[in-house]
């Protein structure tokens, strides 16, 4: 999600976030091999290294939202309240009166005055988070190999992880309606590590989606909503489940500052280097698809893909995370079908256009069939086997 988002887009985004993942899954012959269908037994063949198109790589490496993101960061770090109280962040702050509405968040149940010591403390913390994040907002191709360090944070009681051991099996569970009547609940729960998306509830759906959750992966709009609840309640999976989010608006660092203090389980923010990597990869797939399908020049891509609002989905980044911290990755509930609901847990009809689900699906197919074709990733990174369950 782009960071200079306008309020109307925030609403759209929240719906989009809830929409999670929907693209057509067309992989055949990948499931049902071994116990969970992993293709351990495959003979490694020598394949020619993929040839990346430099023009596409360069194009995908440009973030159209970079300038407005920089502006946002600079304004916020300077404490520019004018924009906050009158502009696009109005939903967060009460306009005019210079009050920040954190009633639901402050334990004492009163709005915090902008010039109060409590707000000042939050503000300093907010600035610190934001500055650190921004300093780190650079591309690095070896970021996939560093994701394993997250495991240590997720599970400090596990000494094995000190040695950089990964989870043996991971399930990434999308929210597509194709999960209904799938009976995959037990299969999902049999994985050592289960990642769920955007707080989709499992209660009442256990048989098809399982009930185990090791990590709740969300976008920061979800935290923003949680932050309005009593003590930042954000735990559809229980208060001990760690939450990881990517920051889609810089102002959400304020929500983070409010919530991190009171959260029992770790509240983690994706590394901005990891965000950039994911953004480049999805844009590459989207642009390649666009050029192939339409034959139009590259510079027309932005017009048909929401330009600077274009963003990878939460599901895509969760899959990328799993690749970094797991020895085997299974993907569930990604994809759509004419006979299935959009979401297993909502009645939402359509999908939103700021994600290119088809492009993301092209990526998943490469992850299953030829991960070396995924651009922007260091040769040193070894992809784990990936299986897509339908
Ligand atoms: C790379 O892609 C661009 C844009 O589609 C195209 O014009 C160019 O011919 C491609 N280059 C190669 C070497 O295939
Ligand atoms: C954390 O580590 C403990 C001890 O090794 C293990 O029993 C537990 O399943 C781990 N938790 C997660 C979420 O991986
Ligand atoms: C959030 O709080 C935890 C526990 O208090 C702390 O270790 C962590 O550093 C905080 N997060 C950030 C980004 O500072």
TrEMBL record:
Q: Which GO terms describe its cellular component?
A: Golgi membrane
Tell me which domain of life the UniProt entry assigns to the organism this sequence originates from: Eukaryota
One GO MF term attached to the UniProt entry: galactosyltransferase activity
Task: Extract the Pfam families matched here.
Answer: Glyco_transf_29
What membrane topology does this protein have?
Single-pass type II membrane protein
As recorded in UniProt, its EC number(s) are 2.4.99.4
**Cellular location(s):** Golgi apparatus membrane
* CDD domains named in the record: GT29
What InterPro entries does the record point to?
A: Glyco_trans_29, GT29-like_sf
Assign the protein's first listed, main location to one coarse class.
Answer: Golgi
Keywords, alphabetical: Glycoprotein, Glycosyltransferase, Golgi apparatus, Membrane, Signal-anchor, Transferase, Transmembrane, Transmembrane helix
PANTHER family for the chain: BETA-1,6-GALACTOSYLTRANSFERASE GALT29A
Q: Which family does it belong to?
A: Belongs to the glycosyltransferase 29 family.
Indicate what this protein is called per its UniProt record: Beta-galactoside alpha-2,3-sialyltransferase
Q: Which organism is it from?
A: Helianthus annuus (Common sunflower)
The gene from which this protein is expressed is: STLP1
